[in-house]
Amino acid sequence: MTEDLRAWLERIEKEGELKKLEGVHWDLEIGNLTALNSQRRNAPALLFDKIPGYPPGFRVLTGAILTPRRVALTLGLPADGTQQEMIDAARQKLKYWLANLDSFKPRVVSEGPVLQNIKKGKDINVLQFPAPKWHKKDGGRYIGTGHTMVTRDPETNELNLGTYRVMVQNENTLGFHISPGKHGRLHFEKYHARGQKAPILLSLGHNPLVFAASTLSLPMGVEYNYLGAMRGQPVDVIEEEVTGLPMPADSEIVIAGWCPPGKTMPEGPFGEYTGYYASGERQNPIIEVERVYYRHDPILNGAPPSRPPDDGSYHLSLIGSLLIEMELAKLGVPDVKAVWLHESGPGYFFVTIAIKQRFAGHAKQAALYASELSARAGLGGRYVIVVDEDIDVTDINQVVWALCTRSDPEKDLDIIRRVRSTPLDPVIKKPTAGLFASRALITAVRPWEWKDQFPEVIGLDEDVVAGLKRRFGKELNL
């Protein structure tokens, strides 16, 4: 059996990575404490219990994969090695996961812990779970932040797992927002174009791997396979009785229902991963809840977005960067040495690529391709910087140094205008007839025409350094 959330919690608690808290209120207290906790790189995961107004055991988990160390522990990477060692290990694992997706198709079973409690009809009340109000100006209580939404394409039957914000409207109705072009939105729009209601399923508590898989921009229909590959065995799923959608058998909480055409309710505002309330209250689609499934003493996963870093931002930097690196190789861009999505540029806003220059225009080619690859998430590629291979792309100081000393704004800066964006883009004034943005491509590499004559970088004498480390390494922590 694969590791469920409870086994994961036991493991990270033994690693000293979990803090249990009691008596913290769902109204802003959990959200504010989570935000304060997220600003520390060594912060623990937080498990809230005995939440006022709720029975003991109805818990909320936040900060699950907030830190590089817990990302490593969750993905099976070297938890106490260097960042480069973790990146190298993740690169190898990602290649294996993607190459073996067909071996990890979900496995349909008839039983699982999620069936311990089933609510239907008048017994449904989604507020039986302590959904927090995360930010002061949020339009309501958001039960869906660290969750995954399962939808199906009515034409191809392909499944999608995605994380899109979900707000409580009332006891049996949820509201949600999905940006244009996202797979989940394409699915319900296809149903609505046929005049049909769209089936939707939410897994609200699970091993953080589920959240990790559903936040990435993966090809349509492979998320369950990807999740199985990460786990090392196929995911056990139960076909939900109303919608027919597969739900993870070991989920803590699952909500299933229908998104009807032509029905909307006010949703938002919501503090988003950009660090802003970038889109206000608007009419958005709803989910009419038909079934609620949950384990005894259920745990709700919370991963509220905020000004970065937040829960999931480091995982996105790590795996999202490697996905772009692999795609560039597939597209024929040679000698890409590294890619990094900086957490301070939320999501895919700020991309840095290191290359070994092979031909004139090589750096511009990498920048152009990467700007579109990073834009798959809907809002990405705002700044793409290409540097030489001697620059550590994960070190923002080195990136800025290369930007300031190897680029000439007149020659090395290009602007791409009127490209795709989303309602979450804070620089777009709303309302607007079109969600357009621009992207800056910067080639901060030694000029191709005279790169061999470019001023030499100041270096250290390796023999002298080795001797100094032997003499003073321990004392100075070298």
What descriptors fit this protein?
Pnp Oxidase, Chain A; 28% helix; ten-stranded antiparallel beta sheet; alpha+beta; five-stranded mixed beta sheet; 12 helices; 22 strands; globular; UbiD C-terminal domain-like; 2 domains; 478 residues
Short description:
With 478 residues, the chain is α+β, with helices and mostly antiparallel strands. The chain is built from 12 helices and 22 strands.
Layout: helices, strands, pairs:
Elements (H helix, E strand, L loop, with lengths): L4 H10 L3 E5 L6 H10 L6 E5 L9 E4 L5 H8 L7 H17 L7 E2 L8 E4 L21 E3 L3 E5 L6 E4 L3 E5 L2 E4 L6 H11 L4 E8 L2 H7 L8 H9 L4 E4 L6 E3 L4 E7 L4 E4 L14 E13 L4 E4 L10 H18 L5 E6 L6 E8 L6 H13 L5 E9 L7 H11 L2 H4 E8 L15 E9 L17 H15 L2
Parallel strand pairs: 1-2, 3-17, 4-12, 19-20, 20-22
Antiparallel strand pairs: 2-3, 5-16, 6-9, 7-8, 7-11, 9-10, 10-16, 11-14, 12-13, 14-16, 15-16, 18-19, 21-22
Helix pairs in contact: 4-8, 6-7
